[in-house]
Amino acid sequence: MAFPQVEELTALIRPVTDARGFDIEAVKTVKAGKKSQVVVAVSGDDAPTLDQLEDVSNELSELFDAAEERGDVNFGAGYTLEVTTPGIDLPLTELRHWRRNRGRLVKVDGDIFRVGALDGATGQVVLVVPVKKGEPGVRVVPISDVSGAVVEIEFNTPPVQEIELAETPFGEIAEIAEESTTGKDDK
């Protein structure tokens, strides 16, 4: 049996992560001489704790060893397994990424926004334009139109106005965005 492909490992890993309510964000394999390295990044609506990551690591290690004994996979002369979280630089590509980062700053095409409400049915997200002078603004955009968005680390306390807009339900914020783009609020 050849060295396992990422797709094979992902299929092997999925039942373990699904049982714990985690999403597989990345599986990376590196064949390094006699020893191989497998890195699995998982996340969830509640960030995994170190104890949970250790439990997943132990379970995956047993699973990989059993699969290797059966001849289903071949890691060569052994492997190192690392189970981790994806980290702050994970691009926001899925609806769940945006949902989990609501209220946080993101960088999109060089501009900074705060993640607001989502509409899962239409795949749209509210991007709050930070306060410069006056009131913050909002944009409602399809997630599919946003590429390369990553979370920005924020050291200062965010402005209350931005947080309030980020926490506003999608239906209400969509109306505010519509009014600001059509000029209805300029009376």
TrEMBL record:
Subcellular location(s) of the protein: Cytoplasm
The answer to whether UniProt assigns keyword Cytoplasm to this entry is yes
Q: Name one GO biological process term.
A: ribosomal small subunit assembly
Keyword annotations from UniProtKB, A to Z: Cytoplasm, Ribosome biogenesis
Give the protein's function. Required for maturation of 30S ribosomal subunits.
Gene symbol?
Answer: rimP
GO cellular component annotations of the record: cytosol
- UniProt-listed InterPro entries: Ribosome_maturation_RimP, RimP_N, RimP_N_sf
Lineage top rank: taxon: Bacteria
Family the entry assigns: Belongs to the RimP family.
- Name under which the protein is recorded: Ribosome maturation factor RimP
Q: Which PANTHER family match?
A: RIBOSOME MATURATION FACTOR RIMP
